[in-house]
Amino acid sequence: MTDTVRPMPASNPVAVGNGFAFGSAGTPVLEVDNATKSYPGEPPVQALRGVNLSIDQGELVGIVGPSGSGKTSLLQLMGTLDRPTSGHVRITGLDVATMDDGDVAYLRATRIGFLFQQFFLSEHSTLLDNVADGLLYAGIPVAKRRQEALEALELVGLAQRQHARPTQLSGGQRQRVAIARALIGQPAIVLADEPTGNLDQATGKSILALIDQLHQAGSTIVVITHDRAIAERMPRRVEILDGSIVADTGPGVSAEQQACPVIQSLVPGLRPELSPGEHP
Ligand code: ADP
Ligand code: MG
């Protein structure tokens, strides 16, 4: 990755809430189109088998599935950290398959925020610089990065600790810093992989409450989890099993999936748009 600032093709920022949506109104921020992923081996591992998923600006989506079902593989495709073996991934309407690695890195740096189970904070840097580093590859000067970092720390309630180091914080506070880093630069989408996996239950709940709050303020967030109780808090739930999406309560749900009684029983609250009398 060079320091060159790459102008993005076809970006059309529209202010939404306190965040930004890219692309014209109605363009999903993230589309996964018939994506497969196989890892080489004897035999190869078929981790994703033709996944279709479309996420609109402002959605809060829980993706739930057991260990080995393909959640992290899907997150890596959605986050452009990996490319699908076949199929397409579009971020704010831009097809990753048509872009070179440098453009993909810039797209990732400016439009996607990541939150992981491990906080990945540098112990040698202040909270402010840990968050500011979230924009390191976006070609933004350091003073501006720090200014935006302070705003992001304010969002998670840690602005007054900006000069502290991660070692001085509790686990929950560290995850708040990681959230601030994911949010800096107002990415089109935040992808979280088991974001409460390293936290005790009470702290995990406070992080989920913060995620709710950010969603209400306009952020688009995908939370990947093996924990059904966490997924059930989300307005939209997508269930993945053996590399396939087997249920989706959201707008992208196919008529076939809606009609499948097995899938309806897998996810409580599927088809919430129907009034009780309308259920079959
Ligand atoms: P989850 O996050 O739901 O646990 P993963 O996406 O990590 O699922 O894994 C899905 C499947 O792909 C599993 O069978 C896993 O062993 C396999 N897998 C994941 N990453 C690799 C890899 N780099 N090489 C080979 N197999 C992998
Ligand atoms: Mg995983």
Q: Can you describe what's shown?
A:
The protein is of the alpha/beta class and 280 residues long. The protein has one domain: Rossmann fold, CATH 3.40.50.300. It has helices spanning 71-78, 101-111, 127-132, 142-155, 171-183, 201-216, 228-231, 255-259, 261-266; strands at residues 14-16, 19-21, 30-39, 45-55, 60-64, 86-91, 94-95, 112-115, 189-193, 221-225, 236-241, 244-248. It has a six-stranded mixed beta sheet with strand order 8-9-10-5-11-12. The protein has a four-stranded antiparallel beta sheet with strand order 4-3-6-7, with helices on one face. It has a two-stranded antiparallel sheet with strand order 1-2. It is globular. Bound molecules: adenosine-5'-diphosphate and magnesium ion (MG). Residues 39, 41, 45, 47, 65, 67-73 line the site of adenosine-5'-diphosphate. Magnesium ion is lined by residues 71-72.
